[in-house]
Each structure stands twice: as structure tokens, then as C-alpha cells.
Design a protein that fits this description.
CATH class of the largest domain: Alpha Beta
CATH architecture of the largest domain: 3-Layer(aba) Sandwich
Strand order of the largest sheet: 1-22-23-21-20-2-3-19
Shape: globular
Number of domains: 3
Structural class: alpha+beta
Bound molecules: S-adenosylmethionine
Distance between the termini: 27 Å
Number of strands: 23
Length: 608
């Protein structure tokens, strides 16, 4: 069978074909990417290249699922391109006309919209830096004791982080052992699945043990609650002799107790978690409110910072809130973890897992003040990158099922829609939104969710409404780039019927090569590496009749192309599936196989 991709590309104008001919890199690095982590976001530099190539200065760009506003930031960059953008354009022989555009962003997410507003219209970076340093100074002046301690030899020091541990209960003799003592082994460093109980001396599987619980008075709720018992097991700190690690001492417990009984500012949230698909009876035991995701010390530290922000000028206040939130859910809560990494002598510190609300058996309590202070430079760098751009961005915190835009007013759409039930954004963002005291309206969220009673049919219907709106506001010569991935054929079907019913057709396809895979992409066996990307237009010209291609023929073509490709990435099973999907899309045939069926049929299960 002849391939159709390259033939299609040759018919396109040279500048578009260069953009879609190869998998475009989408590095997940740099200040603009790192300032705030929002699940699945793409680097703004890559999007900027798409915008600059598909539009002219003065044009309107739309993102109907804008999340943290990357399309808006990218629009800003079109008038202030970075060197890597210029270099990438040159290497692809693209000659975009840099200059200001206007972006309109829609998202139902309250958190996403705040991120977008601040990042696309930042305060003066100098004034922000001064306010942020002052904020930290004030918080440490009143609450520095939260992390002050003594080092390994008794000298004054500061806590960098404390590792806590679940407590296991022996199923035979009920003796309690910390998970830390039971599982962490050194030389080489590893987490064992079994241990010998110090009480009955039997060998026990960690997973067979109950986790100890305790009943404590919850100061904020004013009642006794049950929660998992967790104990501090190792303290990592620094003093003028350098970094150190030591065992927990009585003085540590004194500080924890003081934090637990201290007054929490009234601006801190006492907010019930609206649990949905992410609730897990085991590790979420006793977590009913946002503050249960924190140790008392870290909740107090975030609350003190949050409360102080009200003292600052309007101009910097939202940016300061974002600074604190950027470290909040991912680094200040019990979702912060340590992991074992091959070849490392000690456990490696990391943040919360992306896309889930997982609390490990060894949660970590990082120093919130030190972490927030470290993020100031990243924010300053990000703000400076967009400062001075004459592009404008309008952020709408609303559902895209109804756009407040005139017919035919948009030149170009760049969007990455929610991928079925892959990530329940509103639930993920719940902890940060508790601090904002405004939550995303989940009724409007387009997602497949058993907890919300939204099935694939409901998802497909809402996607149709959005694409109908996209088609309405798009100029007749307008284009839309859609980045999407799913390992499920029914989700692909929902997407393809949404744009087809709106009168949009696939003009080109490609793959966006995310250099650093997200957590789910790394651990799940059924994933899509490199997101399929499609360019849609309103062309009413019917496609030339071609003999129908069978799934087997498509698979053969994909496998043949991968063997001929000089890029090793093209031979990973995930990339092969992405290529299979993009071929289906450009041929206009249904994506009838999910990733698992594709791997089976193509015989590529074992490929890495
Ligand atoms: C894949 S994410 C987009 C990420 C984004 N590109 C970024 O830069 O962060 C999909 C987004 O769709 C949003 N969404 C879900 N339903 C929506 C609706 N009805 N209208 C607008 N946005 C919606 C979610 O809140 C989520 O932020």
C-alpha cells in the first residue's frame, strides 16, 4: 500500500509542511514551563511556533481548553520570540512573521484561569521580586521556628525536609512498626515488600498489614477525627557546616506539637473535599477536608504566607498567590514523596505525582518557606520573558460550549482538549482552589467520570458542542491545531465525530514529541508517547475517492515507515500507535483500535 502522509504534505505550502512533517519537539523545561505545574501542559515555545506560522500579526487566536494558559503565553512570545524559538524556526526553514496577536482563552478551571491571567499579564518583575522577598521575610520573622532546629552535632540549623512514615500493624501479634523500619533497606538502597515482625518474629508482607489509625482533636473542625497514624522518621537539614541528615529527636516532636496547637489565620480554608474518581479508601483514610492533606506544620506555614498576601498592592497580589500555590499542592502537602532511584545512595525527594492525589507510605514534609523562596527566581524569569510583548490575552473562566465571540472572527485555534477520563482536572485542582475559595463548576467540566455520572456519550456530546462553536467562530480560511491523546478507541471516536459533525476536516497530521514524559506516560503500560496532532480546516471539498484501507494495511504501512525512519523514537510501541492514529485521522477512517489492541495486532507489545 502507498503511504498518504508524505503525499499530503507535498501538496501543502512549504511553511506548513515543515511544521507537520516531523515530530515537533515540545521540551518541558524553562521558566515559563516550570513556574506552575498544570497536568499535561505543553511548552509555550512550541505552541508559539504554530501560532506564528499559521497567523499574521493582528490575528485572533483561540484556545477552547486553555488550562494554565500556555496558548496565551505563546501568543505573547510571538511578539517577543526567544532564541530557541528563532533557532527552531530556522532549523525547519520556517519564516514566521513575528509580531503581536490577540488571544482568547476559555477554561472552566478556576485555578487554570488564575494561572493564565497572571502569566499572560504579569506584574513588573522587579516589584514582584521585592514583594515576594518581603513576604518570605515577614513569614519567617513570625514563624521561622517551624523549621528551626539543631543539627547533627547540636549546632543551630534549619530543616530542609522531614520524612514521615505510615505505621504498620502486624496481622498476627498487632505489634506496630513504622513502614520506614519495616521496608527501607540500604546497601543497596531498596524498599522491601516483606519484614520480620519484632513481636512475633514471623515474616510478613507489608501489603498484608493494616495501617494504624488514631483519633485526634481537629482544631479547625472543632471535633475529634480519625486519621492515619504517621510518625516523623528522618530529618534532613542544613547548618553552617553544610547539609546533614539525622534521626528524629524529642525537640522535633515539641515543634510539631506547637504547630498543631498554634492559631491558624482565619484566611486559611476549612474546606470539605468533594471526592470524585480519585478517592482511594486506603491512603485517603480520614482525609475529608483540604487541611488533612497537610501536616499541621506545613498547613500553618502556607496559611501564614496566604494571610500576609492581603497586605500587598493589588498589582502583585494575584502573582504572590500564584507563587504560594505553585509550591502548595505539589510540594507542601502529604502528597510530596521520596522514591528509590537506581544507583542513588539515599532516597530521592520529589513532588506530588501528576494526575492523581496519591499519598505514599513515606510522605515528606518539605520546608515551605525555603521552597517558595526558591520559586521566586523562576517566576521572575517567566515574567521577564513576556514583559514588553504587545500581544494581548483575554482569559475567560467559562465553558467553551458557548463562546462569546462573533462568527468568523478567529484566524487560528490551538487547543489540547481533555482526554476522556485521563485526568479529572477539577478534582486535581481542588486543594489549590480551596485556598482561592472558589471552585471549578464540575457540572461544566468535559470529562469521563464515573463519580460525576459522565460517560463517554456525555463526553462526546459536550465535545460536539465545543467544536460546533469552534467552527462557528473560525474564519472560512481559518485553521485549528488540535493536540490529543488517548489509548482508547471510543475516546478517539468522540473527538473525530465532534469535529466532523462541526464541518471540520483533517488537513494534516503530526506528532508532538514531549521530551519528558508525564508520570502516567511513564508508568502505564498502555500509553501514547508523543501526542498525535491534527490540523483542521473548514474545507468543504470532498476528499478524492480512494480505495478503502484496511486496518491491517495501515499497520503494515506504519511498521514499514518506522523501520525506514532514522529516528529510534519512531520504533517505540507508543509512537507506533500515535502514527497509526494519525494515519487513521488523515485517511478519515475510524480509530478502531485502542493502544492495547494495536500492540497485540501489530505484534509490538514487547517494544520499549
Ligand atoms: C489538556 S487540558 C489543557 C491544558 C492546557 N493546554 C495548558 O496549557 O495548561 C484540558 C483543559 O480542558 C478544560 N475543560 C474541561 N471542560 C471544559 C469546558 N467545558 N470548557 C472549557 N474548558 C474545559 C479543563 O479544565 C482542562 O484545563
Amino acid at each position: 500500500m502507498k503511504t498518504t502522509g508524505p503525499r499530503q504534505v507535498r501538496r501543502m505550502t512549504p511553511r506548513l509542511s515543515a511544521l507537520y512533517a516531523n515530530a515537533l519537539p515540545a521540551d518541558r523545561t524553562g521558566a515559563l514551563y516550570n513556574a506552575f505545574s498544570y497536568p499535561t501542559k505543553i511548552s509555550p515555545e512550541s505552541i508559539a511556533l504554530f501560532i506564528a506560522t499559521h497567523t499574521a500579526p493582528g490575528d485572533t487566536v483561540l484556545d477552547v481548553f486553555s488550562g494554565s494558559g500556555t496558548t496565551g503565553i505563546a501568543t505573547k512570545l510571538c511578539d517577543k520570540p526567544t532564541q530557541p524559538m528563532i533557532d527552531l524556526a530556522q532549523s525547519l526553514s520556517l519564516t514566521p512573521e513575528w509580531g503581536p496577536r490577540h488571544a482568547v482563552l476559555y477554561d472552566v478551571s478556576v485555578l487554570g484561569s488564575l494561572v493564565a491571567k497572571v502569566m499572560c499579564d504579569p506584574p513588573d518583575s522587579g516589584r514582584f521580586a521585592a514583594a515576594a522577598s518581603d513576604l518570605l521575610k515577614k513569614a519567617e520573622a513570625s514563624h521561622g521556628w517551624l523549621y528551626n532546629t539543631t543539627g547533627a552535632s547540636g549546632e543551630p540549623g534549619t530543616i530542609r525536609h522531614t520524612i514521615w512514615s505510615d505505621v504498620l500493624v502486624c496481622l498476627h501479634c498487632h505489634r506496630e512498626t513504622t513502614y520506614w523500619d519495616a521496608a527501607v533497606r540500604r546497601h543497596p538502597l531498596r524498599l522491601e515488600r516483606t519484614f520480620v515482625c519484632g513481636g512475633c518474629e514471623r515474616t510478613i508482607d507489608v501489603d498484608d498489614c493494616d495501617r494504624a489509625v488514631e483519633r485526634v482533636r481537629d482544631q479547625l473542625l472543632g471535633r475529634v477525627v480519625e486519621r492515619k497514624r504517621r510518625l516523623p522518621v528522618a530529618v534532613y537539614g542544613k547548618s553552617n557546616t553544610g547539609n546533614w541528615q539525622r534521626e528524629v529527636r524529642a525537640e522535633d516532636q515539641v515543634v510539631c506539637n506547637r504547630a498543631a496547637s498554634s492559631r491558624v489565620p482565619s484566611t486559611a480554608p476549612v474546606s470539605e473535599i468533594a471526592w470524585g474518581d480519585l478517592y482511594r479508601a486506603g491512603y485517603h483514610h480520614g482525609i475529608t477536608h483540604a487541611h488533612h492533606f497537610y501536616t499541621p506544620r506545613n498547613f500553618l506555614a502556607v496559611a501564614v504566607l496566604w494571610d500576609l498576601i492581603d497586605q500587598y498592592d493589588d498589582e502583585v497580589r494575584d502573582a504572590l498567590r500564584l507563587l504560594v500555590l505553585s509550591y502548595n499542592a505539589t510540594h507542601s502537602t502529604l502528597m510530596t514523596r521520596v522514591v528509590v532511584k537506581h544507583g542513588q545512595k539515599d532516597l530521592v525527594l520529589t513532588g506530588a505525582q501528576s494526575g492523581v492525589l496519591y499519598v505514599s507510605g513515606l510522605p515528606v514534609e518539605k520546608n515551605v518557606f525555603a521552597g517558595v523562596r526558591r520559586k521566586i527566581a523562576t517566576f521572575v524569569g517567566a515574567f521577564q520573558l513576556v514583559a514588553g510583548s504587545k500581544s494581548t490575552v483575554d482569559v475567560q473562566n467559562a465553558s467553551s460550549t458557548k463562546l462569546d465571540l462573533p462568527d468568523g472572527s478567529v484566524r487560528y485555534v490551538f487547543t489540547d482538549p481533555p482526554f476522556g477520563g485521563y485526568i479529572p482536572y477539577a478534582e486535581i485542582n481542588e486543594i489549590n482552589e480551596a485556598w482561592l475559595r472558589t471552585r471549578t463548576n464540575r457540572a461544566d467540566e468535559i470529562v469521563v467520570s464515573a463519580a460525576a455520572g459522565k460517560d463517554v456519550a456525555a463526553y462526546a456530546k459536550l465535545m460536539q458542542l465545543v467544536f460546533a462553536e469552534v467552527s462557528r467562530v473560525l474564519r472560512n480560511d481559518g485553521l485549528a491545531t488540535v493536540v490529543f491523546h488517548s489509548a482508547k478507541s471510543e475516546i478517539w471516536s468522540a473527538l473525530t465525530s465532534a469535529y466532523a459533525s462541526a464541518g471540520l476536516t483533517v488537513k494534516l497530521t503530526s506528532v508532538l514529541d514531549k521530551k519528558q514524559a508525564s508520570f502516567k506516560q511513564v508508568v502505564s503500560t498502555i500509553t501514547v508517547k508523543g501526542d498525535p496532532l491534527m490540523l483542521l480546516n473548514k474545507s468543504s471539498a470532498s476528499k478524492a475517492e480512494r480505495p478503502a484501507t484496511s486496518v491491517h494495511e495501515l499497520i503494515d504501512t506504519v511498521l514499514l515507515d518506522s523501520r525506514n525512519s532514522p529516528h529510534p523514537d519512531e520504533r517505540t510501541k507508543e509512537r507506533l500507535f500515535s502514527r497509526f492514529v494519525t494515519r487513521c485521522l488523515s485517511e478519515g477512517i475510524p480509530v478502531s483500535l485502542g493502544a492495547a489492541e494495536f500492540y497485540e495486532l501489530a505484534g509490538v507489545w514487547r517494544l520499549q
